[in-house]
Amino acid sequence: MALTESTMVPLGAACPDFTLPGVDGRLWSLHDFHTPALVVAFMCNHCPYVQAIDDRLNALAKAYAGRCSVAGINSNDAVTYPDDSFEAMRARAKIKGFAFPYLWDEEQSVARALGAACTPDFFLFDSHRRLQYRGRLDDNWKDAAHVTREELKEAIEGVLAGREPLETQCPSMGCSIKWK
Q1: What is the C-alpha to C-alpha distance for residues 42 and 61, in angstroms, rounded to an integer?
Q2: Segment 30-52, tens digit of pLDDT
Q3: Is the pTM higher than 0.85?
Q4: Alpha carbon distance 154, 133 (integer Å)
Q5: Residue 47 belongs to a domain with what CATH number?
Q6: How many domains does the chain have?
């Protein structure tokens, strides 16, 4: 499924309700996140783009704990990509010490509802769970030492301060979601 202008969810759109299993053994729904902001991060285990940023995402989740929740969601087809299976997700979350729930969208319904295109792909919602940002984590997926602009962090700060969405939102770059 290629992402086109017509499949992009517009800013201001509501976050779809979901109930997904987490690697922590519980079911998570949209209503379990009570912070003023929520990041939905589409990610997986095998993608080198995700592997390059997952420590930064984890640090962001820790830095904004209590103010902005992060939900990592894997929507990849685990039959075709067994490294992205639920069991492999559990192992990766444990090794990485994720400070956020890592959820499995086996039916790919959340990814489809939001028009997620790749891993990683970030969606930031305000306290009313309306989309305020859709894009990349920062301006250098490959090397944290060369990041000059942390766009997701800027967007979170804007949401927490009640500002309008960022005018310029750069799309994520990564591995395509592996659709069934």
Answers
A1: 14
A2: 999 999 999 999 999 999 999 99
A3: yes
A4: 10
A5: 3.40.30.10
A6: 1
